[in-house]
Every structure is written in structure tokens, then in C-alpha cells.
Amino acid sequence: MVDSLVIIPTYNEKENIEKIIRKVFSLSIPFDVLVVDDGSPDGTANIVKILQQEYPHRLSIEERVGKLGLGTAYIHGFRWALQRHYAHIFEMDADFSHNPEDLIRLRQACLEGADMAIGSRYIKGVNVVNWPMSRVLMSYFASAYVRLIMRIPVQDATAGFVCFSRKVLEKISLDKIKFIGYAFQIEMKFTAIQYGFKIVEVPIIFTDRTEGVSKMSTRIFREAFFGVIQLKVGSWFKKYN
């Protein structure tokens, strides 16, 4: 029985989705895949449905109406996973910015004792390919800002390549996670730390997408910037047990 599920949220990823799914299924360790598609008008969901005929017990899709946000897509996927048998539940982008080969390393980190393994761009210097310097600096200093405000020992706080042990997602009250953009990634890490879970960062090389369009926006960045302050202040009045 496959014990690991990779959740891939999609919105207009027709150029990438078949290739990323086939790559995951080609790995030496088996992973199931759940695609959470937010009504992609480019036909992403239809591509996944065709592939389901080839991988009937390994590939699933959940379709939602409208572009509802990254965080809500992952929470939808987390709930779907918790209703099933998976011991390790992953977040991964569809655009190959995360190397599917690294899924094995993240899973291994959890097998060796981590409750949450993060694919980190910054644990060993700056390992980012094809980003303009302005975006590298923005991302790097955003993580530094998070560490300063929230006092958490995570070098890549906005990372979206993560393996959760099942018990982390069972403990966190998913209905109380309030952010939907990159602040969602920060909130999940901060909450896991507050509950006392062990987080390990695994160094990866992050490669910017070569096909499709980035979903980054100033609104998403603004949510992350101010969300950090909201999370920190809110933690003063919340009990974690």
C-alpha cells in the first residue's frame, strides 16, 4: 500500500501537469498524486482525467469552482488525505520549480524523525535558478523578516515544498488556518512549531518555471508581509496543546 500522497494545486498548468505527474510516478519509491484544480479554463483538469485511465488507483483529482487560493487548495487536499491511509502528505508545485526527485529525500527526513520536512532554498546559501536578482532578494529577505518577527528557526519560511507527517495535520485545526497565499506557508510552519513538532530543512535547488505563468502577485506578497505580524500577535492569546 502506498503511504505517501503528493498534493499538486493547479490553475492553468496544461503545459506542465502531464509531465510532472509522469515524473512522480516514475520515481523509485511509489507516491500517489492528488491534483486540486481551481476550475482551470485551459483544460488542466481534462488532462488529469485522461491520465487517470492510465493510473486509475494512483491519480486523483478534486475540482473546485473558481480560483480560491493556494492555501484553501492545500487544506482541501489535507482533508482528503486524512480521510485515507496516508502517513506522509506532501505539498508540491506543478511547474517543476520543485524537483520531484527530492520527494524521496523529504520522505526520508520524516522517516528519520522529522515531523515536517521542508525543501529549503536557503539552508545552504541561496539555491535558486532562473530568478531575477530582485526576486531572489525579495524571497531571501522575506524569510529573514519572518525569522526576526516570529522567532522561528526556519531559513526558508515561505517554502512550498513540504512533507507533513500525518500527525501534524491531525493536530493542527485546519479550519482555523486563515491565510490563502504565501502567508499560508508561514502559518503552517509557525503553527507546527508552536505545537512542538520537529521541523527539518532539506537543501534543494529551486528552479523557476520555464512554462506557464507565475501566480505571484503584489496582493499575495502583501498578505504575507502583514500576515506575519497578525500571526505573531495572535499567538500571544492562543494556547497550543
TrEMBL record:
<feature type="domain" description="Glycosyltransferase 2-like">
    <location>
        <begin position="6"/>
        <end position="172"/>
    </location>
</feature>
<dbReference type="GO" id="GO:0016020">
    <property type="term" value="C:membrane"/>
</dbReference>
<dbReference type="InterPro" id="IPR001173">
    <property type="entry name" value="Glyco_trans_2-like"/>
</dbReference>
<dbReference type="Pfam" id="PF00535">
    <property type="entry name" value="Glycos_transf_2"/>
</dbReference>
<comment type="similarity">
    <text>Belongs to the glycosyltransferase 2 family.</text>
</comment>
<protein>
    <submittedName>
        <fullName>Dolichyl-phosphate beta-D-mannosyltransferase</fullName>
    </submittedName>
</protein>
<dbReference type="GO" id="GO:0009247">
    <property type="term" value="P:glycolipid biosynthetic process"/>
</dbReference>
<keyword id="KW-0328">Glycosyltransferase</keyword>
<dbReference type="InterPro" id="IPR029044">
    <property type="entry name" value="Nucleotide-diphossugar_trans"/>
</dbReference>
<dbReference type="GO" id="GO:0004582">
    <property type="term" value="F:dolichyl-phosphate beta-D-mannosyltransferase activity"/>
</dbReference>
<keyword id="KW-0808">Transferase</keyword>
<dbReference type="InterPro" id="IPR039528">
    <property type="entry name" value="DPM1-like"/>
</dbReference>
